[in-house]
Amino acid sequence: MTDLQRTIDADPYRVVINLQKEFDPAVSDKVIGYRASGIISRLDGKPVHKTFVRYTIPQGDVIADRADAMREGEGRARAAINGGFPD
Question: How many CB atoms lie within 10 A of CB 16?
């Protein structure tokens, strides 16, 4: 695991948040922020939603601070769980 990935076990779910670096188009090696995405699965291997064993949290907006981006991704994952995995 790197500082761009976080795994959270919240029984019965496992949430994996991934950050992708967003680069400045004018300066190709300058990181201007991070986009969070995630995957939710169940610790027991059963389907998360309907017949799907994983539920995907799509990439979010660019957030300048890495920790803030991680929190934002985790918040969206928790909202999906609490919302019953909206389609």
Answer: 18
pLDDT tens for each residue of 20-78: 999 999 998 999 999 999 999 999 999 999 999 999 999 999 999 999 999 999 999 99
Question: Do 8 and 74 meet the contact criterion of CB atoms below 8 Å apart?
Answer: yes
Task: Write the single-letter amino acid at 51.
Answer: T
Per the DSSP assignment, residues forming a β-bridge with 83 are none
Q: Indicate the pTM of the whole model.
A: 0.90
In this structure, how many other beta carbons lie within 10 angstroms of the beta carbon of residue 44? 9
Domain range summary for the chain, segments of one domain joined by +: 5-82
- And the tokens for 21? 């670096």
